[in-house]
Amino acid sequence: MGxxxxxxxxxxxxxxxKADIMIREGTQIKLKYLSRLGYLxxxxxxxxxxxWWVIQxxxxxxxxxxxxxxxxxxxxxxxxxGAMLGVWLSVAASRGRLTFEDLPTVVGRFREPMIxxxxxxxxxxxxxxxxxxxxxxxxxxxxxxxxxVSDPLVAILLGTISGISEKALSVRVIARSSEIIGSDAxxxxxxxx
Length: 193
Fold this sequence. Notes:
It contains 6 helices and 2 strands; from the N terminus they run H-H-H-H-E-E-H-H. The protein has 193 residues and is mainly α. A hairpin with a 2-residue loop joins strand 1 and strand 2.
């Protein structure tokens, strides 16, 4: 070694060490994170399904004698459950192959799954409020997503989509909220007494 160290040999040894660590630990870390996220998502989805079931059967929504507004609230439970599924699918699909450099990020995220799931579920509910109050419109291939309040399958689909696209959706919901507040502020400031 002496005065001229072999940096290429050191780099090769470091690459081999990283590869060995990833072979031994990478897959286990990924599966552990997905399992933890899956258990939490399943638990929180169950809460949404219970809310849907209690309202549907407690108020007799299927009989048609119930108050329609109360029955439509039940589909928010399905929207919530769909968002839990969407988050898990999003994470599972995006975590294709871990690299050594990804390990600190993934290990650091072991504390965040519950927060991420609650955020995505809440975001889905806010999206549902926007749709049901006609603040926004969302249609795809002829499917009007504002119908989620009366169609359980649309509610699950809307929730799943909101969970999968939680990051992009949060930016859009915040922007739309700012537009609404900005337009209200402008309209109230221009009115004359």
